[in-house]
Amino acid sequence: MSLMELKTADWHARASTLKYETRHFIDGEFVDSVKGGRFAVINPATATVLCEVSAGEAADIDHAVAAAKRCFAGRTWSRMAPRERMAVLARLSCLLEKNAERLALLDTLCMGKPIRDMLTIDIPSAAQNFAYFGELIDKIDGAVTATASDAFHYILREPLGVVGCIVPWNYPLLMAAWKIAPALAAGNTVVLKPAEQSPLSALVLAQLFIEAGGPPGALNVVNGLGEQAGAALALHNDVMKIAFTGSTEIGKQMLIYAGQSNMKRVALECGGKSPQIFLGDLPDLDVAVTYAINGIYGNMGEVCNAGSRLLIDKPIAKEFIARFIERGRTAYQPGDPLDPATNLGPLVTAGHRARVMSYVARGKSEGARLEFGGATPDNPGAFIQPTFFSKVTNQMTIAREEIFGPVAAAIEVDGIEEAIAVANDSIYGLAAAVWTKNLSTAHKAVRDLEAGVIWVNCFDHGDMTQPFGGYKQSGQGRDKCLESLISYTQTKSAWINLV
Ligand code: NAD
């Protein structure tokens, strides 16, 4: 039976008998924390404790970094023949698909994502990351440059050494894959610190890497709180790069850590407040409304590039908002994330729900019109109704700050010039979309929008070749794509005197 055919009761039965690891994975084996500390992981759908996980601190990070450093120096991974390394990552990609049931359950139980999203988005995308970056391994070239006849000059592209990866909880497995796959493909060794809310799937990933033929020490996972394990990793003098995905606030902290330690490279994928511009001449209003709904309510709105600001041209605003209300009110309904029909699970924690609800209150008090939602269902889990505000101005808090929940804000604009000005009036610049039939308008919008990813007449489309990352305070790294792989390498120039 395919996983897509399982019913809610099947998933609950499997969840109740699921076995999984809760210790760190260092140098190819599971180990407890040096000090023995543990922290609780709460299932946000039920508000019950799922498990206790080893809480890493500086000593655990030291062990993991030392293992990664030994592995790098031992060249078992960094100098493994390219085609062998490619085969390891290809096998890992297949193993992720084979272990889809376990991986899907672990992320869903920890952070509440609908199981159907795990099966259709997170796991296939994570597998694709390892396949894509694996395929690129023997395509990284150095160069020979033009010189006078008395010299020979070549440039090698080499790995950095130990890379520290720190990731968030909204796509636990996938965000880890975005960092680990290119880092390993480039020949680095890795220490990963998952988010404390979603620590389990990364432990399976690390184990599968060994099963795929990866050497011990090349991929290590240390769980723990951000201020402890995360800070120790980012401050470590033997870590040559920190690849971070998370909030803008903590992203800035990464730059400080780098300055306080060894000037390590820092790649940042941070928050967003993405605008979708719907112009009066858009191709199809219903299609646009569908994308607007999915763009903010998918993954409970816990998406860095969520289309949280809907900039709607005045001539179509009334009709657009009416259709959004009619369909958006029911398109996503809070439900058991283990029910394959559910498309809106709980938010990641009760604390995060309280934060999102505080934004709902701010929206109301600052004068936006609550069209639907804005309440929490009567349920112990961290659920919230999909929420929609109209009559929003770009100065209101709900238009300026990243809410990271299913809260849409509609702002009416007068034509493309004003739309671009409003879109760019944000500290963020992760993604943006424009909907228009006019080719010139579309290209001008692409030119003028301050964002790393632009969509025209669609939202959230893409593949592995698409650089993903932000302008402004959304960050300065690029995930997926060839550029990402290159960012985990450094050049060495060899000038040879031919005498
Ligand atoms: P967060 O910044 O609180 O945490 C992210 C990671 O940093 C976690 O592993 C956490 O433990 C760690 N951390 C926290 N404090 C730390 C510290 N002082 N030192 C070292 N590490 C620390 O973010 P979050 O709430 O887990 O995730 C949501 C955020 O992630 C949102 O802002 C979202 O936009 C962003 N995000 C961005 C992208 C992107 O590609 N741009 C993708 C997904 C999520």
Q: What's the overall geometry?
A: globular
User: Which ligands occur here?
Assistant: nicotinamide-adenine-dinucleotide
Largest beta sheet, briefly? 7 strands, mixed
Q: What would CATH call the homologous superfamily of the largest domain?
A: Aldehyde Dehydrogenase, Chain A, domain 1
Strand ordering within the main sheet: 14-15-16-13-12-18-19
Low-confidence stretches: none
Structural class: alpha/beta
Global Rg: 23 Å
- The CATH topology of the largest domain is given as Aldehyde Dehydrogenase, Chain A, domain 1
State the total count of DSSP E strands: 21
Task: Tell me the number of helical segments per DSSP (H or I, 4 or more residues long).
Answer: 16
Please identify, by name, the CATH architecture of the largest domain.
Answer: 3-Layer(aba) Sandwich
Report the sheet-strand fraction: 15-25%
Helix coverage percent: 40-55%
Provide the number of structural domains: 2
Give the terminus-to-terminus CA distance: 70 Å
pLDDT averaged residue by residue: 98
CATH class of the largest domain: Alpha Beta
